[in-house]
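As described in the Methods, two query proteins were run sequentially through the folding procedure within a single session, without resetting any intermediate state between them. The first query and its resulting C-alpha cells are shown here.
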Amino acid sequence: MDDFKPLFEYVEKNIENKMGLKELADFMGYSPFYISRKFMDFYGIPVTAYVRIRKLQYSIKDLLADMKVIDVAMKYSFESHEGFSRSFKSLFGSSPKDIKKYLQKYDIPEVELFANCKTKSMEEEKMSLSDVMHKMIYTILGNSFEEMAAGFCSKIELSLLPDNCLKIFDDGRGIKLDDNGVVHEEVLQNLFSGKPITKLEYAQMGDLPFDDLKLVNSLCEKLTITVWRNGKICEQDYIRGVPQHSVTSKTNDSKILHGTQIVLKPDSLIFGESEFCKEKLNKWISENYSGLMGKVKID
C-alpha cells in the first residue's frame, strides 16, 4: 500500500469530526496496526498526529475570523478548551490568543502537497536541514553586507550562542521604525511577520525562497530583533514568525548609537540537532564578500 490520497481526502471532508485510528483504518480497509506503520514509514509521524495537525491548521483561520477559542476547540472536536490550547501552543509555539491578536494572515496548506510528501533518509535529511539552516543566516547577513557596501556600516559581528542560537549585529543605520517619535509597527510586520510552519509542511515545501525574511522568521523557534536609531531602542520578539507583543520602544541609554541585532534559534521541531558551523559561515562570507572579510567578526 503506497497511496494515502483517499485518506487525506477523508480527513479533509471530516475535519470537524472526531477521527480515531480505527475509523481511519476501517475507511482504508486495513488494520489499525498496518495503517499506523505504513503512514509512519511514509511521512514520519503517526496518522493521528497528522489529523491533529490539520485540525489545528484549520483552526487558525477561524481564530483570525474572530471566533472564540472555546468555540473553535469545540468545532474541531477537541475534548476541552485547555486541551486545544495546549496542543495548539505545542505545535505553533504561540497561544491561540496571541495568534488572534498578532498573526496578520494565514493560508491553510493544500492537502495535495502533504500527499506528495515522503520522508528522506536520515543522512539526506541531516545534510539538507543543515544547508537550509545556514541559508537562513546568509539571508540576514546579505542585508548587513548591503548596508556595509553602501558605506553605512563599519562592522558585522556573529556570535554562536548556546542551544544553537546565533546573534547577528551590524552598526548600520538601523531599520527606520519611528517618525517624529511615533513607532510604526507595520514596518517590522511587513519585513518579518511570518506564519507557523510545521515539520510536515516544511518537508513538502521544495526549494525555498530565502530572500524572504518572513520565511526565515517562520522557520525560527524564536527570534528577537533590536534596532538602535534616532535615540531609541526598539525591540520585537517572535515565535515561529508570530509577534509576541507590540514593538517596545525606550530611550537609548546604551553606547550603541545605531544598528540592528537579530538573535535567533532555528525551529528544533524542524531542524532537530543540526548545529551552526563557523567554518560554513566563514566560507560563505569569503566566497561572496571577500573584500569585506576584515570587517566581520565571528566568535
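Immediately afterward, the second query was submitted; its sequence and C-alpha cells are:
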Amino acid sequence: MATIAPEALPSGRAGSAEEADDAPDAGFEPLSAEQAAQWRAAHPPQSPWPVVGAQAVAGLVAVAVGWWLSDGDVAVRWSVAYGVLAAWLPAVLFARMVARRMRVQAHAGGALMALMVGEGIKIALTVALLLAAPRVLTQVHWLALLAGFVVTIKAAWLALWWSSKRRAAMPRGAAIGSKTG
C-alpha cells in the first residue's frame, strides 16, 4: 500500500490541509480599479430575456408539433401547452428577479442570496404547477405534458450554450493590463 506524503507549505514544512488553505495564494495579484473597469467593459452582464425568449419559441414549436401529431386529441394538445407553461412561467418570474437585481447591482453576497432565493421560488412554482395539472386539465396526457416541459427546459440550456459560443467568438477588445496607445 502506498503512503501519500503531506503537501508542503510555502514555508517548506509539511502541514495539514487546513494550514495549506490558510496559506497566502502565491502569484495572486488583485486588480487595480482601471483593470477592473476594463474587465467589466470586456465582460458585460448578460440579460436573461433572450433565454426566456428562446424558451417561448421552443414552447410554441412544441405546442405546434403536439397539435400536428395529436390527431385531434384535445388532451394531448392541452397537456403539451400546460407542460410548456409549467416550465416557462417560472422562468419568466426568475428572469424578472435576475434582471431587477442586475439593475440594482448590490454587493456579491446579496446578489448570490437573491439568485438562490429566486431559484428556490422557481423550483417551488414549477413543482406546484406540475402537481396542479390534474386539477387544471380535464384529462392529462402525462407524456405530452412532460414532452412540452422538457423541450422548454432544454431550450434554455441551448440558448445559454449558443450565447456563450457567440460571446466566445466575439473580439473582446484590449486585454486586462495591456497598454493601448
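The first helix runs from residue 17 to 22. We note this only descriptively and draw no conclusion about the first query from it.
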